[in-house]
Amino acid sequence: MILPMVQVELLGPRQLLAAALRFLQGQGVLQLREPEGLGAGPAEGHGEAPAGGEGPAREARLAALLARLEALLARVPGRRRAAPPAAPLPPPDDEALPEALDALGEQLDDLSARRAALLEEQERTATFSRLVVAVAPLHGRLEAALQPELHGLVLKRDPAALALLEAEVRRLTGGRCAVAWRELDEAQVGVLMEVPRAAGRELSALLFERGVEEVRPPGAVAGRGLVEGLLAVAGRQRAIPSELAALDAGLEAWSAEAGAALAAARDEVAAALERARAAGRCGTTRFAFVVAGWMAAERVPALRRATVEAWGDQVALLVRPPPRATWGDVPVVLRNRPLLRPFERLLALVPLPRYGSVDPTPFLALFFPFFLGLVMGDVAFGLLAAGLALLARWRRWGGAAGRDLAAVALACAGWSLVFGLVFGEALGGLGAHLGLHPLLDRRRALLLFLGLALAVGLGHVLLGGLLGVVSSARNGHRREAVARAGHLVALGAGAAALCARLGPLPPRAFPPALAVAGAGLLAATLAAGPLAALEVVLAFGHVLSYARLMALGLASLMLAEVANGLAASLPGPGGLLLAVLVHAVNFTLCLVSPIVAALRLHYVEFFERFYDEGGHPWRPFALPEP
Amino acid sequence: MEKVFIALAAALAIGISALATAWVQSRIGAAGAGAVAEKPEVRGAIIVMLAIPETLVILGFVVAVLILTGG
């Protein structure tokens, strides 16, 4: 059902507006709306800045603060909030908050930069070490007096290019260099060059000009010779992991504290921003304020008690049912019994029903599994679906949505078991070998099965029509109610007349049924115009659409028969395996096609008779969720 | 010979309606995929729209069954 709502107005002295909004936000039971009957003048009207300076400028400042906090929090690694912060940040309106955020940002920048530098050094050290270890044994040495320094390259295998490189380096250094290379893998060659420090800059410039990227030596190696460089690299390789671990520990400790403080500040700022926006929607005069909104009728007594406790008689709470003319704006909350609640998920694919209209959830809960069961109609598939649903529930797959879908699947499996017993099917015709006796053999009684599907469709469409009549009458649309009732009578009596002609009903029922159908059509035409006749024809088309239940069921049965035929005609494990595969495909198809078909039968054929979409979702004015 | 014509009529009833459904679904599917890519919230409506032309082949199937069973 759609939860009954009431229209609420909270009135009080203007200086209490900020506190009243904070109070209402804490209660979290009201969805705000613009109050009626107030002008938009500068002194009297809604939307102007109320007391406490909560105006557009403050709103913009809070929005900017919230964006900064979100950006900072996104950069903080690990969990956002394990416990309340030991050192909370200043409150949202405190001028010190932006400075505190600046300081935290700088700390995070510093820690991140140090970590990035260490990681880069670790990578460079590893690459350089790999190069030096591979090439060093081949390497000649320069005199210490020349202050040799190392340059490394990783090049593609090309002997001509390597020879050219060596010649260039020798020319540049006047022959005072040592160049060696070795294959690192199938495609690459590592090159190590030792040159006098005086020629180092020129060598780097030469390599840059030729588009050759140097393996940049780590800082510890810069300006050192081979042996000293190797020792320095080994030292850094040992030291960097412990430095990284210490830095990570520091970062984790900082994140735990700062993350908690930032998350708490983000929640506070978000709440303050919501209040600032809410203040813009409140009505104010020079002396008073009014906060208007909708809330569930069942929560009014609790809010009234809390209001009296908080404000005594300073603030008044006015409650009245929403006028029918405003039902289109009233937010919608669906509230069904726990058994039916999972089926509310099936409504997620269509817009919410309008306030004051019919909630179709109970009908979905009844007919959706019924339709699926009618199509599947197989004991084995029912048991398999029930097993999977129970497993999903037990393993808690998919969280709350998974639990709801498992409940829906369980209901579908139940109906599949029931119809499996009616049709005497378990993996198609194997049911007969298990002792199942069909009450309705849908392999042979095709027309009877078709008639059953159409009868179900007729009942479903008539029920939708009846709900449409009730809904129109409840909303005060009398002509629409009469037209819908006329359609309903014309469809029901027309179907009865058809049955009388075709056999299921005695032929003597034909004339009165036809007369009643004509009367219904006449009533509908008088109420809704000549197009009412077209509506009745469309309704017959909708009933015929339910033949898909029979068609899909028969297709599923035939596929099962094919699988059984494969097992019988191909002896040995191969045939059995093939049969299992085809049954698995059939089961998967049984999960997909009937779901789409059953949803479509509800959304198109059933809902069209009564469903009044366009309801607004419930968005209470509440503290933001952490 | 009569059986051949009956079978042919049933095959045509379901075959032509299946072709019509396939053509319509291809058009709706292509447009629907584009719509879902831009507005994922219309997913439900697209699924329903995609299922609407199925009525054609279902009715073809019913006619085929009636032809085959002599109903």
List the helices and strands and how they pair.
The complex is a heterodimer of chains A (626) and B (71).
Chain A lengths: L4 E9 L3 H11 L3 E3 L11 E2 L9 H20 L20 H40 L12 E9 L2 H15 L4 E6 L4 E9 H13 L4 E2 L10 H54 L3 E2 L3 E9 L3 H12 L4 E5 L10 E2 L28 H16 L2 H17 L3 H25 L6 H4 L12 H29 L3 H25 L7 H19 L2 H15 L1 H23 L3 H34 L9 E2 L9
Chain B lengths: L1 H37 L4 H9 L2 H16 L2
Task: Please describe what this structure looks like.
The complex is a heterodimer of chains A (626) and B (71). In chain A, the strands form three sheets. In chain A, strands 1, 2, 3, 8, 9 and 10 form a six-stranded antiparallel sheet that branches. Chain A is α+β, with helices and mostly antiparallel strands and 626 residues long. In chain A, helix 8 packs parallel to helix 16 and helix 12 packs across helix 15. Chain A contains 17 helices and twelve strands. By secondary structure, chain B is mainly α. Helix content of chain B is 87%, strand content 0%. Chain B is elongated. The model of chain B has no long low-confidence stretch (mean pLDDT 88). The interface between A and B is medium-sized, with 18 and 18 residues.
User: Averaged pLDDT of chain A, please?
Assistant: 86
Q: Assign the structural class of chain A, choosing from mainly alpha, mainly beta, alpha/beta, alpha+beta, or little secondary structure.
A: alpha+beta
Annotation field: number of helices of chain A: 17
**Percent of sequence in beta strands of chain B:** under 5%
User: Radius of gyration of chain A in whole Å, from Cα?
Assistant: 39 Å
Quick check: average pLDDT of chain B? 88
Total strand segments of chain B: 0
Relative helix content of chain A:
55-70%
The main pleated sheet of chain A reads as: 6 strands, antiparallel
Superfamily (CATH H level) name of chain B: F1F0 ATP synthase subunit C
* Helix-strand string of chain A: EHEEHHEHEEHEHEEHEEHHHHHHHHHHE
How far apart are the termini of chain B? 20 Å
Helix count from the secondary structure assignment of chain B: 3
Gyration radius of chain B (Cα, Å) is: 16 Å
Low-confidence stretches of chain A: 39-53
List the domain count of chain A as a whole number.
4
